[in-house]
Amino acid sequence: MEGKEQSKKKESWYWNWLIGSVALRVILVYFSNNLNLASRPEISTPLTSLRRLAEGYWLKQSSMSPYAGSMYHGSPLLLSLLGPLTAKRIEGQPDHILCSLVFVIADVVSAMFIRATGRNLQIAYSQSLKFLDLVKLSEKSDILPSGDIAALVYLWNPFTIVACVGLSTSPVENLAIILSLYGACRRIAPLAAFGWVMATHLSLYPVILIIPMILLLGYGPDTPPRKLFLQKKYVEVGDTPSNDRCLQEEAVDQPELPYVFSWRPVIHFLFWTSLWLVYVLVLCGVSVKQYGGLWELFKRTYGFMLTVQDLSPNMGVLWYFFAEVFDFFRNFFLIVFHGNILFMILPLAIRLKHRPFFLAFVYIVISSMLKSYPSVGDSALYLGLLGLFVNELADMKFSFFLFCGYIGVSLLSPVMHNLWIWRGTGNANFYFATAMAYACLQIILVVESVSAMLNHDRKLRKLSATKVLDGKT
């Protein structure tokens, strides 16, 4: 009875905080004109700005190409979905109220999917520990499940809130990524394929998530390292005359490996991916048929991302670098910067294939750091997903330093931008310094989180070896 009452209290506590986050968003949305967040380069980029989307919709309504000029570079499907809401007005209400409510709903739905994903990961992790005869670890209870923690971190993260209130389309892009990961975690191939296709269509960089998604579909949410099942026992045979310990290695008979890669859900996923991909291309082709067709669409969207045509300041490092680089070397450095993401895919996949969801988290952080036009909405996504690994990353180093660093960058960035643009007492280096600090924080987060996860696996391996040793003796 006490356990049921405690679980009910946790459930009600979670829902109270969720309702509070929605209420906060609605209040801030209603008074967002006073906050002037939509003009902040940390929040709205050339790809996520709702003002640019409204301009593209106006051009489309005027029988002109929405990609005319240099304003809109987003998806034509997103233009068809949100464009009418930018033109529709409710008397006595702010002009942007309808679009803002869509972003609020997207945040809440994303949090619900994160929570459900966390529960699936926790169940799979507990089953793995029980199979390894580490029942005590699987029965360890926390204040809140990791899924609830991750969902609340996502909802109450200031980055998530300002991205929602600041009229950025990042909440919709984040929802597509979370939907794809949830579908892969549950092995629902149509849902995973739909989310991945839409996420890739909206921002291109989620294309690299297909590797962890295939691993999720093939192995499942949690796959302990193979070494845990091929464990070797070290038996102490006594002291040598020099008082040194001598260890003798003895192979242990292990049962058949329980985690075998299954190709059936992967093939199912690839089939639905091709189906959704064709469907999206057909819809896009119909939308831009009179404006140059699909080739013009790819040139204005994906080409715009890859060639970094807009050098307006943002939280990334590419705008400053390509503003300074000689044109002769521009193409070379474009290949280098985008190739950095690709070069990291295979080594990380080999090392973290037993943790496919964590691998997806690492890919998201790397793409958020190296993409052409990053924003705080990208950080909101991976910081929310980080909450899913509170147990595994409990020993992560520099956590307090990272926390203070993110706060410092968040406070210094608008100050440096104001000194440079409005007061004229600074220069571009002031603002770029905060972007460099922001990139360094993300690098430290990736390095330390991967190190903490690998250390966690080593601890499991040692505990498993101890269990085997105790069982033999």
Automatic annotation (TrEMBL):
Keyword Transcription regulation found: no
UniProt keyword Transmembrane, yes or no: yes
GO CC annotations, alphabetized: GPI-anchor transamidase complex
Residue stretches spanning the membrane: 12-31, 159-182, 194-219, 266-288, 300-322, 328-350, 357-373, 401-422, 428-454
GO process terms (BP): attachment of GPI anchor to protein; GPI anchor biosynthetic process
Domain of life: Eukaryota
Family annotation (InterPro entries): PIG-U
Keywords: Endoplasmic reticulum, GPI-anchor biosynthesis, Membrane, Transmembrane, Transmembrane helix
Pathway participation: Glycolipid biosynthesis; glycosylphosphatidylinositol-anchor biosynthesis
Cellular location(s): Endoplasmic reticulum membrane
Any Pfam family matching the protein: PIG-U
Membrane topology, from the record: Multi-pass membrane protein
Family from the record: Belongs to the PIGU family.
PANTHER family, per database record: GPI TRANSAMIDASE COMPONENT PIG-U, PHOSPHATIDYLINOSITOL GLYCAN ANCHOR BIOSYNTHESIS CLASS U PROTEIN
Annotated protein name in UniProt: GPI transamidase subunit PIG-U
